[in-house]
Amino acid sequence: MNASMRKKVQRNCKIRGYNLKVDALDEILSFASRFEGNEEEAIDLLLDKLDELENSLKSTIIDKDTVNRAVSLLLEVVGDDSDPGEGTGTSSAFRVIDAFHVPKFKYDTIRKQFYEHTGSLSIHGEASGKAALYRDRFLLLSQRLSRDQHFSKPAFESEFSHFGSCEISPIQSLVGQTGRRWVMGVISQLEDGHYYLEDLTAAITTGLFSENTIVVVEGEMLLEGIFQVLTCGFPPLEDRNKSLKVLSGHDFFGGGTLTKEETIRLEEMEKRAVNDMFVILSDVWLDKEEALTKVETILDGFESVEVVPSLFVFMGNFCSRPCNLSFHSYSSLRMQFGKLGEMIAAHTRLKEQSRFLFIPGPDDAGPSTVLPRCALPKYLTEELQKHIPNAIFSSNPCRVKFYTQEIVFFRQDMLHRMRRSCLMSPSIEETDDHFQHLVATITHQSHLCPLPLTVQPIIWNYDHSLYLYPTPHTIVLGDRSAQKAFKYTGITCFNTGSFSIDSTFVAYRPCSQEVELSAL
């Protein structure tokens, strides 16, 4: 490339406000040399791409790596111009994140920002880990609430500054105070039969909702030291995009951070993935011949469709009996997994074009019933993997990143357990649908399982893997209760029902977030 072209590139870069390093200039000229006769157009395209990357650049000084990144994005755009009517390549379309690989973040109350935990996390935590579990949950919702316009402190004091304002008061500050106050706390049972509302400073008595949930209440402190509650509710939700702006590029989901340009490109690819479908089954009892026959019916049906599903999700339990200390049929269950593998392998199109994800249930084989649960033991799945080498065995819960969408899968009979743990019946003013109450609870709590640890044990150091913050696009619950779907504040939530009991399953199209409640 002649000297005049080098000067032209340097001049164009200075006009756009960039300073080129020598290796970056050489890389640009090398890229332009691929397009003989159209070098100037190629350079303009590359500089336009650098302009798009401007927000993610740390400096106006451009190095070789930055140019290579822009070149890669340009070439990927060209390579992604595929037929929109065809299904996408599932290997690049989605990523499965195991619960034990989800990054952990802690909130710094002084700097008002999150920082990532470094180092390994022990399964058997120290005693301080249990206190940290509650503190981290509380701070997560507290920082979210502080940005709500109704609960934030007015920036300027004036005659009307407190009109419509519900500023949160620390519980410790209520001592000796009169009049109504708003407080936020965790409902806990410090003494048998007596419920308290705790924050990071003190505790007061209350008697609403279920133990372990975090609530915002309005009330008045009585002379007896009891806080009389007048209004009680969950902390308000925050829009997903607003949460993402505050997180400063932190990856809470575990799917990796994306630049603005990469997000736009993936969104375009996602729009073209109109035929991608997930088929989700829960309670697939492999020890029951009837259940296997129904699985084969579903596989036969999807084998013959024009575009096969991208992903099949099989959620436990995989046995009709709990795999506890009294269970002695592990070799038989291993053979049943192998039989399922043979069945899938017999459907050539599904085996070659679809992926298969297996998530354990609450009564499946494993070290304990504590959450999160690790993947199914290799002993049980070896025979299946011989037939389906690309089968994925993940934890419960687990997360799936589909292009830009974040999807959470959780197999647990939550509705029955939450209703049993309620301190009082839920209000039916807005809805009498118990599933909608469940969805509202877990989304407002930003947690998949806000039950007391005595009801559902959780590994203290991995409680963050059950967070729903920022709110995901889709929450898939595997619950034995009736099959349901509910769109709540833009979040798609649905329950698959029990496949072995009710013959129900769900076909989900992530591109349009369309839920098809199905049954045999």
From TrEMBL:
Compartment(s) where it occurs, according to its Swiss-Prot or TrEMBL record: Nucleus
Biological process annotations from GO: DNA-templated DNA replication; error-prone translesion synthesis
Ranges in a coiled coil: 36-63
One cellular component (GO) term of this entry: epsilon DNA polymerase complex
Keywords: Coiled coil, DNA replication, DNA-binding, Nucleus
The DNA polymerase alpha/delta/epsilon subunit B domain, residue ranges: 278-483
GO molecular function list: DNA binding
Family: Belongs to the DNA polymerase epsilon subunit B family.
Stated role: Participates in DNA repair and in chromosomal DNA replication.
PANTHER family: DNA POLYMERASE EPSILON SUBUNIT 2 (PTHR12708:SF0), DNA POLYMERASE EPSILON SUBUNIT B (PTHR12708)
Identification of the protein by name: DNA polymerase epsilon subunit
Organism: Phaseolus vulgaris (Kidney bean)
